[in-house]
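Predict the 3D structure for this chain.
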Amino acid sequence: MRKLKNSELDRLSVEDFKNSKKTPLIIVLDNIRSLNNIGSVFRTSDAFLIEKIYLCGITAKPPHKDIHKTALGSTDTVTWEYIENTIDIVEKLKQEKVKVCAIEQAENATMLNDFTVDSNTKYALVFGNEVKGVSQEVVSASDHVIEIPQFGTKHSLNISVSCGVVIWDVFTKLSKFSHNTSL
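Done. Predicted structure below.
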């Protein structure tokens, strides 16, 4: 096997990305404090053609050098919007028939591997603060609470890692309804 060169990866241009059909997923960042985590979420969202990111509360907004360091230009491709209160966008999305899923450890949470998707539904995945997680108000307002199964001594993952795990899982489940992996 030979590693591929960047020129062989057949990446989309910024314009092609913006014109591509998007994965029916929205990411909501509920008070994320680390700019590197925010940049990583942008980069993962670019990789899976995520429709939009909502940055809420204390979550910083591009342009910022520490976001750019990990986003590597994906703040120019992924559509984003700042909303002061996370609950406001959660309520708006629910009115638009988007299923809101808080990614959190909570009573009666559905384990990620048991979470099933509907091919005719758009989902919003809410990721919370590095210390406090998703706010209780948002958890209570969500249609689903999804927990990532963990088996070691620690009971949390970095938010950017959680985002990558959950986006990949939901993307693959949604892709089963499509004839190709680009949905």
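Strands lie at 23-30, 50-56, 80-83, 99-103, 110-111, 123-128, 144-147.
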